[in-house]
Design brief:
transmembrane helix, membrane, 2 strands, Integral membrane protein
Length: about 120
Amino acid sequence: MNGPLSVATIVVALVLAAWLLLRAALNRAPSRFDLLATAVLGALVAVLVLVAVVGLFGDHRPSDTPTFGGYLITTIAFAPTAIYLARMEPTRWGNLILGVACLVLPVLVLRLQQIASVTVA
């Protein structure tokens, strides 16, 4: 797993989570900016997952490749699913959905790093 890219993803997700949860607390519905910012986070996550998939074809593979693959699928699907659900809920709860998704993404990225660190040469 790429260290700087993982850190950037985690930082962006946490900053965005703080923003979205603040907007939910202020009783604001998801704006176009909120949805676009989450989509940008999703693109950053997609790059991270692409780098991880390319890394699977190298010499050092995770010892539990099926679990790693499951986390990859979950990680890349999380942001688009949150956007879809937030668009279905055009109230403050939509921002809460996006905010919680942004809080879960760093956990998924950290878990991917943990699994990737245990490699089989």
